[in-house]
Amino acid sequence: MVSQQELREQCKDLHDQAEQTRLAQALIKGNVPAKVYKQMLWQLYQIADIIERKWPFEVSDLDRRQQLALDIAHCGLGEVSTLASTSAYCAELNNLTQDQLRGHIYVHYMGWLYGGQLLKKASKHPVNHLEFQDRKACVDYIRTRILVDLTDADSLAAQRAFQTIMEIYNELY
Ligand code: HEM
Description:
By secondary structure, this protein is an all-alpha fold. It contains nine helices and no strands. Helix 3 (34-54) runs antiparallel to helix 4 and helix 6 (102-113) runs antiparallel to helix 8 (135-146). The protein is globular and about 45 Å long. It starts with a helix and ends with a helix. Protoporphyrin IX containing FE binds next to helix 1, helix 2, helix 6 and helix 7.
């Protein structure tokens, strides 16, 4: 068994590395170019789409897919395309059972619920995907309903998700 505290510790170095990527630094400073931001949203949309199809959350506030679509629509003109790193990750996600998604949900959804809350203040671009009606209820749902009975496999999945998001970030910017 792996506790949430252990999961956090096992991912800490990767979280710190993700924070140091060029894109994360630009998100913190609020100076991501509009084209890059729209591309990023499209990559995140595809990830959320697979996760939310496989794991329909009982808390609708957690549905990020439609918020991401809204943000993309509000980004203005500009083509988006699927990056190689995103395609590879989506193929991996598509092959997982619902049960194997815990680590991935942890990384992406807690990322939006925690770090994302700092980033939205600095952003000059649409941030609906970082707005929650009841953030605490979303965190509680993830912690009490999804991040339960964790094993080493979930921790490895979370580490894999962090590695992949860094690949996507590096391909984006
Ligand atoms: C862009 C810069 C980022 C900043 C400023 C940031 C900041 C934070 C902060 C302040 C917390 C809560 C404090 C804590 O529990 O230590 C947090 C937690 C978290 N962040 Fe980030 N973060 C960033 C990027 C990311 C990225 C790219 C991801 C993954 C996609 C991510 C995933 C997480 C997760 C999963 C947690 C929950 C940790 C836990 O409580 O177990 N963060 N982040």
